[in-house]
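Honest question from a wet-lab person: if I give you the sequences of every part of a complex, can you actually get the arrangement of the whole thing, not just the pieces? Trying it with mine:
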Amino acid sequence: MAYYRRHDAPPTDPRLLQELTELQKKMQDRIIIQKPDFELKLIAGCDSSFIGEDTILSAFILLKYPELEVVEKVWHHGQVELSYVPGFLSFREAPNLLEAYQKLEQKPDLIMVDGHGISHPRRLGIATHLGLHLEKPTMGVAKKVLVGKYTEPAPTKGSISPLEYKGEVIANVLRTKDNVKPVFVSPGHLMDLDSATEIALNCATKYKLPEPTRLADHYAAVFKKDI
DNA sequence: GCGACAG
DNA sequence: ATCTTGTCGC
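Yes, you can. This is the full assembly:
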């Protein structure tokens, strides 16, 4: 994608951000929020970690569902083109994530991404962005809110509270473990909020993060030693 | 004008 | 994301 390779402008150049904003607005029309039309047998989790300022390492972990047994682990590293700007995370991390995804021998039915889906100013969080590029069902699980308001869900595992933005519920604030800060679950693409929430909870074992993203996060750090 | 702001 | 020590609680 041409917009991924921009060495001709500073990372946070206002003109570039304006350009990316326009691109996201065009991408909005292609987002599909619906009940999943597949049997969830294989789920992937992905996450990235950094080495220094501009070297990124992304990992994809493939798991059986609902058993949550790991069946494949891949990773890829490269250089990032943009600095981090809230609302534009995907332009910084998606390129390398897509490279890592190609290394999977088996492809998942659904991808759980570390970050937001449609709970984004222009409905284009990194989970949605990846879903559109891969034409694959995706969902996002973020650790912090980006936009919207919510009330704290009850302290017990399984409690949910809606995240509202501009009069719409764009995510569910889900408690995945007793007395631990909740996560923000949102559909990315070819997925709906209720299904995403149910899947996130089914993948929550004894930790705050659902297994797919927890393991991706874990291995993204472990694989750094292999560089 | 003053905060808020995924990873 | 990343840099970092001790500390509270199950």
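Two things worth pointing out. The CA atoms of residues 7 and 105 of chain A lie 32 Å apart. Helices of chain A lie at 14-27, 89-102, 126-134, 193-202, 211-222.
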